[in-house]
Amino acid sequence: MVTATEEKRKQRHIIDEAIKGVPLDKIEADVKPSLHLDVKPSLHYIYSSTNTHKEVKEDLHQRTLIFEDKNIRKGFAQVPNVVLRDSTLSGNEKTLYALLLSYAWQDKECFPGQDKLAEDMGLSRVSVNQMLSKLKNKKLIRIKRQGLGKVNIYHIRKLSDAYPQMVD
Description:
- The chain is an alpha+beta fold.
- It has helices at 4-18, 70-73, 81-84, 91-107, 114-121, 125-137, 159-162, and strands spanning 31-34, 42-45, 57-59, 141-144, 153-156.
- The strands form 2 sheets. Strands 1-2-3 form a 3-stranded antiparallel beta sheet, with no helix packed on it. Strands 4-5 form a two-stranded antiparallel sheet.
- Helix 4 crosses helix 6 (125-137).
- This is Putative DNA binding, helix-turn-helix domain containing protein.
- InterPro entries: WH-like_DNA-bd_sf, WH_DNA-bd_sf.
C-alpha cells in the first residue's frame, strides 16, 4: 500500500517534470503548485497582487504552456482565431491589430499615435497608415480622427462586421 507521503512525493515529481524541473521553492509566489491526494495533480494560479486569490485549475497532463517569465504574466494581447487565420491579412496587419488590442485593454479604447504604433512595430509611419487603412476597409477597426496634431481614436469593431459568419 502506498503511503500518503509516498503519494505526495510522486505527485511532486510529476509537477516538477511539468514545470521543466524548476524546484517548487523557486517558483514565483503567484504561481503555486497544489498537491491533492484525492485528485490528479493540478496547478492553481493565484493572483496574489490583487489579494482576491482567484484560482484557475488546470490538469497538468493537459498543460502545455507555462509562463516562467513573470513579465509575460503582466499582460499580453490575445488575437481572435478568425483574425489570426485570415489569409487576406498580412502578418504585419495581424500584428498591428494585436497591438491595437493590447492598447484597447488599458482604457477600453485605444488611442496611441501613429508614430507610437510605427515605433512599436519597427516600421515607418507610412506603412502603419497603409495597414490601418486595410484594417479599416476590412471592417476590423473604426478610426475617429480628432484633428491636426491630435491622436486618432481607434475603435475595435465587432468581429461580425468583418466576418459575417460570426454571430454577435
